[in-house]
Write a structure and sequence with these properties.
The protein has helices at about 15-30, 35-45, 50-65, 70-95, 120-135, 140-155, 165-185. It has about 200 residues and is mainly α.
Length: about 200
Amino acid sequence: MSTGVPRFGLRVPAPVDRFDVAVDRWFEKRARGRRAVDAVMYGASAVGDHGLLWMGLALLQTARRRDRRARRRLLRAWAGLMAESAVVNGPVKWMFRRTRPLHEGPRPRRLRQPRTSSFPSGHASSAFFGAALLRDGDPWWPLYYVAAGVVAASRVHVKIHHASDVVGGAVIGAALGELARRLVPLESPKPKPGCSSP
């Protein structure tokens, strides 16, 4: 049974479909329905809405560091997250329009139900985008990627996304994050030898 059909009638490739089914079964057997796991995953999914977690972490990072790059760091993160969300949740999702997983029965906790395409996961994309931007010069950077992984996995746990949506979102977010780091570096480029500043 197919787990989702993108736009234009193109079906999900069989290997991707099997991957989605296998991951969903793992969550069903090992994670869903366990009170502590549900609490963590539903909580992670909620705080990941609209990139709020990453905007909050950027604010905390700025307050903690208070260096000369603090303001630039915060503005880069907030502007970047808004731009990333506009791209992924707009034209990228519109291109695919994949149906979301079916969830039967009541949920253990309240959860916002999105109406956009299932592919790619906007939560996963913003999570890995945010982690990429926040990691510059921060010794806590591995924790940002751990948090990104939990937020991304939570979307499969709560049955809002297929596993391949999450993988796709994570790859897109990480790539956009690296692009943003190159386009808007925290350090101003040093002038080349022999070139005078204007």
